[in-house]
Design goal:
The complex is a heterodimer. Chain A is an alpha+beta fold. In chain A, about 55% of the residues lie in helices and about 15% in strands. Chain A has 3 domains: about 90 residues, Serine Threonine Protein Phosphatase 5, Tetratricopeptide repeat, CATH 1.25.40; about 70 residues; about 60 residues, SH3 type barrels, CATH 2.30.30.40. Chain A is globular. Chain B is about 25% helix and about 35% strand. Chain B has 12 helices and 32 strands. In chain B, strands 22, 24, 25, 26, 27, 29 and 30 form a 7-stranded mixed sheet that branches. In chain B, a hairpin with a 6-residue loop joins β26 and β27. The chains are: A alpha+beta, B alpha+beta. Chains A and B meet through α2, β1, α4, α6 and α8 of A and β5, β32 and α5 of B.
Chain lengths: ~250, ~600
């Protein structure tokens, strides 16, 4: 049902579908032949063509992550897998792959546990595809004003419109809450470390105290920028300033 | 008057002096163990100042900076702004060196500083030259606020130095070496701190817990006795071969009696250089060698050797000794015949207090017997490189026999799927790529402009249509039709008026309004003047239209009651239920009429 809804909302008529399909198939063949450089090149080409028409693809990001992993480029693999996870946060393959990848990184960063209620709520809004949430939000928003318009017209019996308005408002608020939580997750400023070792300082200057070092492939949150430095925060709460060029942001 | 005033104003508007850019050093000559300040200063700033960003200076290390400052002076009603940037440098070797000129942009114009010739001598000279400057506010010239002479006495390089000491001067790749930075002093030290944590390039490092109180120890160097203490320790593991230099951190030291009111001038000391010679591990490396370098002992113990079916036994594998414990891995069989084996616990490493290179790393493994009899747990082994004997050593434990008796538990109660065994993961890899003819693709509609336009515009559209529909409603144009179709809502609005009288306690008006609302309902419904309508007539007409007698009775009762109460008001409290009765009756009539 969920897949069906996604397909319904997905606009698959943009761009030249056959070209992207051909690139995708060729990249898959290159991957099977262990020619990971070629696979990455073809997948990236397909991804940039999609991106030009404002489209996104989970499959392309996921496959790019797999090919980068095979090339031992763990930082790029992390970046692509995280981008894929943003599209489908509960996909078992991408979560499994990220776990394998994390086990091979030099930095073991503890993620604080999430409460049961928060986890259940997270699971709820992550299980509904974002296009479905935004589409539903639009529909319920329209319904509210359709019922309002009918009530204003005063032509028909008001009772069913009052009920309709109430139900639409409740559904609108619920969908808004879920969509807002998911949008917040998507807008989260996160980045992956792309240098073998990055020094993190207490202030945006290399002359300040060195707090800790993080290594290639680590995932960090970004909070602010100043004079070529970015304020990073790790999932366990450690934070500091590091040079901006050491990171690539997740979009 | 204006003749005189103009030149004066012109003079006042002039800056104190023209822009001047200079580079100065805080001391010349300096010692190889000294740190000194290089200051680039712009006097008479006339616009934006862009100082050069120094990342390296030939023959010198930049150990701190840059710190900038800006000052404004007003002398004789004229202002002068100066700006400066300061770096702390330390020389790399002895000799005479030249600090090159620097280009500074002031207000878009480039200025060049003069090169500085700097003599660098071995050891430390700086403390000899530094003396406490006389305060310009010290007008009484007494010693009350001056430190005692001992605190101001210059500290020579021989009196106070820091050495980098290694547990071994020669090591193999991956071997654990303790690096200790030890202070040697013949003067009292009030405070001690490291300026910046050193960067151990070419080594993996492990922190050693530090004591808050330094343990002092007397040591003799070249016949001279010093008070010494380890300031900072780290265990390092070389990752490449050759002569690897250890970092030379700079320490901030305050000389003087720590309990004195005058602790003395702060000085800086750079650690003396030290190198570690690292040899590669001999080849070929034996099978099972995980990279562990050191001297280790391996032991395996069980909490019991007699066990009943269903009970568990705990096996403890311990590796003790001296070396790099991070590379010591558990070499226990992945499965043991006759036992269900649980995943080993996370290793626990305990280091010796006195010698952090020594320690014990332990794993605990829980085994549950699956059959009775004498079961054998095979021995385990580990291979490591011993840097003392300079060869690879393999330690092995003997197999252990465990006697399993019949007990309350059974194998089937422990293992799901009797007669088989659980699937054991033997590898760990990522999932395969997504295949197919085309990748999935979607557009995030929330990011499109149309989505935002729809969100904002459509509500107005629906409300506008609602207003248009209302405006074009034919019933609203014909008052007769309008009154007939809206009789119930007109009734409700009149009843709301009656409720206001009820709130105010005006009984007469209240009952009159309720009665009028009921009669007006029929007047609107049948388009008959209100004055022509009497309740008896209404009842007859309703009867003629086939309305239930009980409903007719309800409306008649309500009206008659209100009429009676309005003309013969009683002292009783106002009847609130009459509104509800009238509303129920009208809503029922609305369905019939």
């Amino acid at each position: 049902m969920r897949k069906w809804l996604v397909i319904l909302l997905c606009l698959t008529t943009f761009g030249s579908a056959s070209d992207i399909g051909a690139l995708y198939r060729k990249a898959g063949e290159a991957y099977a032949a262990k020619d990971y450089d070629k696979a990455i090149e073809l997948y990236s080409q397909a991804a940039s063509e999609l991106s030009a028409s404002g489209e996104k693809s989970f499959d392309l990001m996921y496959n790019l992550g797999c090919a980068s992993f095979r090339k031992e480029d763990l930082a790029s693999a992390r970046l692509y897998f995280e981008q894929a996870r943003r599209i489908r946060p509960l996909d078992p393959s991408v979560n499994r792959n990220l776990k394998v990848l994390e086990s091979r990184l030099s930095d073991k960063i503890k993620v604080p546990p999430v409460g049961t209620v928060e986890k259940a709520y997270q699971h709820l809004y992550q299980s509904i595809p974002y296009p479905v949430l935004t589409g539903s939000l639009l529909i319920f928003w329209f319904l509210v004003f359709i019922f309002l318009g009918l009530l204003i017209s005063g032509r028909y019996s008001r009772k069913p419109f009052y009920y309709g308005l109430g139900v639409s408002l409740i559904l609108l608020l619920m969908t808004f809450g879920l969509a807002n939580s998911r949008a917040g997750e998507l807008a989260r400023r996160e980045a992956v470390v792309f240098q073998p070792e990055v020094e993190v300082f207490s202030e945006p200057s290399t002359s300040s105290s060195l707090l800790f070092r993080i290594h290639s492939g680590a995932l960090v949150g970004m909070e602010g920028e100043q004079s070529g430095f970015v304020h990073i925060i790790l999932p366990d709460g450690m934070n500091g300033w590091a040079r901006k060029q050491s990171f690539k942001a997740i979009h | 008057m204006a003749k005189f005033l103009l030149p004066i104003l012109l003079i006042l508007a002039l800056p104190l002096r023209a822009t001047e850019v200079t580079a100065t050093v805080s001391a010349n000559p300096v010692g190889t163990e000294d740190a000194f300040q290089l200051t680039i200063k712009v006097d008479g700033v006339t616009g934006e100042v862009q100082f050069p960003e120094l990342t390296s200076i030939p023959d010198f290390n930049i150990i701190a900076g840059a710190s900038t400052s800006r000052s404004t002076q007003i002398i004789n009603w004229r202002t002068s702004v100066s700006s400066s940037i300061t770096y702390t440098l330390s020389p790399r070797s002895a000799g005479t060196f030249t600090i090159p000129p620097f280009i500074v942009k002031v207000g878009g114009k480039e200025y060049k500083t003069q090169p500085i010739k700097l003599a660098v001598k071995k050891g430390s000279l700086l403390s000899h030259q530094q003396s406490r400057p006389r305060s310009p506010f010290d007008m009484f010239n007494d010693n009350m606020f001056n430190p005692p002479a001992s605190a101001r006495r210059p500290v020579s390089a021989d009196s106070l130095f820091i050495r980098c000491e290694l547990s071994e001067p020669i090591a193999y790749m991956g071997e654990a070496v303790m690096v200790s930075y030890r202070i040697y002093s013949r003067v009292s030290v009030a405070q001690l701190g490291i300026r910046e944590l050193p960067d151990f390039t070419g080594f993996l490092t492990e922190d050693v817990p530090q004591n808050h109180v330094l343990n002092q120890e007397a040591r003799t160097v070249n016949g001279v006795t010093y008070n010494t203490a380890v300031i900072f320790r780290k265990i390092v593991f070389p990752t490449k071969t050759g002569r690897l230099p250890l970092p030379q951190p700079v320490f901030n030291i305050q000389v003087g009696n720590p309990y004195s009111f005058f602790p003395g001038e702060p000085i800086q000391r750079k650690s003396q250089p030290a190198t570690l010679t690292v040899y590669p591990l001999p080849t070929p490396q034996p099978n099972g060698f995980s990279g562990a370098v050191g001297q280790f002992q391996l032991s395996v113990s069980f909490n019991q050797d007699h066990v009943k079916m269903g009970d568990s036994i705990t096996c403890t594998v311990a590796v003790s000794g001296e070396g790099d414990f991070n590379t010591v891995e558990l070499m226990f069989p992945e499965s043991v015949d006759g036992f269900r084996m649980f995943r080993p616990s996370s290793p626990e490493l305990k280091r010796e207090q006195g010698n952090p290179l020594r320690g014990v790393k332990t794993w605990k493994i829980v085994l549950v017997p699956q059959k009775t009899g004498t079961l054998v747990i095979p021995g385990t082994r580990m291979t490591f490189f011993n840097p003392v004997s300079k060869d690879y050593v393999t330690r092995e434990t003997k197999p252990v026999e465990i006697s399993v008796e019949k007990g309350t538990g059974t194998a089937t109660s422990v293992v799901p799927g009797a007669g088989g065994s659980e699937v054991v993961a033997v590898g760990n890899d990522i999932d395969y790529i997504r295949t197919g003819d085309t990748p999935d693709r979607f557009v995030d509609i929330s990011e499109s402009q149309w989505y935002r336009i729809l969100i904002v515009a459509v509500p107005f559209l629906f409300i506008f249509f609602g207003i248009v529909l209302r405006w074009r409603d034919p019933s609203r144009r014909d008052p007769v039709t309008y009154r007939r179709t809206h009789a119930a809502s007109l009734f409700r609005s009149r009843i709301r008026g009656a409720a206001k009288y009820l709130k105010k306690g005006r009984g007469r008006e209240y009952y009159q309004q309720v009665s009028k609302a009921c009669i007006s309902y029929f007047s609107d419904k049948w388009n008959r003047p209100i004055l022509d309508l009497k309740i008896d007539e209404i009842a007859r007409d309703l009867e003629a239209q086939g309305v239930e007698p009980e409903l007719i009775r309800a409306i008649v009762d309500a009206v008659e009651y209100c009429d009676f109460e309005s003309y013969t008001p009683s002292s009783n409290a106002l009847n609130r239920d009459i509104i509800k009765d009238a509303e129920i009756a009208v809503s029922r009539l609305e369905k019939v009429l």
